Amino acid sequence: SFHCLFRTSYAILLLTCAFYLQVEVLNVTLHQHLVGQDIAINRTVAAIARYLGGGESVASLPLVLVYVGCSGCGKTYALSLIAKHCPHTEALVASHQVALARRTGDNLLHWLQSTLSSRRPNFIVIDDVDLAPDPANLGPGDQSFSAQLETVLSSWGQSGQQTGQAVIFVLSLSGGASVAEGFALKLLGDKQNVSSSEDVKGLVEAYRYMLPPWLKSAEIVPFLPLTKADVKECLLRQLAQHTPELRARVLALPGGVNSLLQDFRFYPAENPIFSESGCKEVPIKLALVAADSL
User: Fold this and answer.
1) Which of these CATH numbers, 3.90.1150.10, 3.40.50.300, 1.10.10.60, 3.40.1260.10, describes 2-223?
2) Which of 86, 95, 112, 175 is deepest in the core (most CB within 10 A)?
3) Sign of the alpha-carbon dihedral angle for 93, 175, 26, 149
């Protein structure tokens, strides 16, 4: 009847509005917490918004976001923010083999078939995916996690995964840092402070060329090396979460927060602007200062 049709259409409209509101809040959350990764944030949010706005086509194929780039630059942190922001997100760490096998039964396809919901969007975030695992680490008859992932994504629709709901995978790949680092060094050599859309497109295609065929159509999201200014911002943000005593101790150092930057490694040698480890070592440096104050 007309009333049933109206109620159904209204429910769909409300659901669509809720999706877009969720995406906008995710955008704000990522910008508030991730330092120096505007390109990655914008590509993530744009891809999710585009996918959720796809209507009926959303149900036929999943969205696959592939996080690539340097170590310590926020890929894992971004996954954790997405998992916290989106209710019912399934979070896996591919390199934690024992915990992973216990969680999925060493059969990702079967696990997904029993896990995906037909009542709400599905988010699956997977950290530290190795696309070229060492066969020596596999037992007789075992299938690597990347091979299981390939089976899932290559056979989507033929293996009973379709739920009628959006399914979004966010994969963070191990390795591949040299491509992003080379890109950043080229911009530095060209005296560019901001990368253009053409620059980013070239970086994305460089990563796409490296990916196996079953990931060629994924949305590639590059994380670029963090600068000295970015690391300082990380220090300030984490310092704000510590005790007033520690904050006072750091600010009382000759040079204040800048003095802590001397303990980080930056490159290239002739113009050391990019952090070798991103913000990964920030908690360690602050913990050492705290220990010295005891």
Assistant:
1) 3.40.50.300
2) 112
3) negative
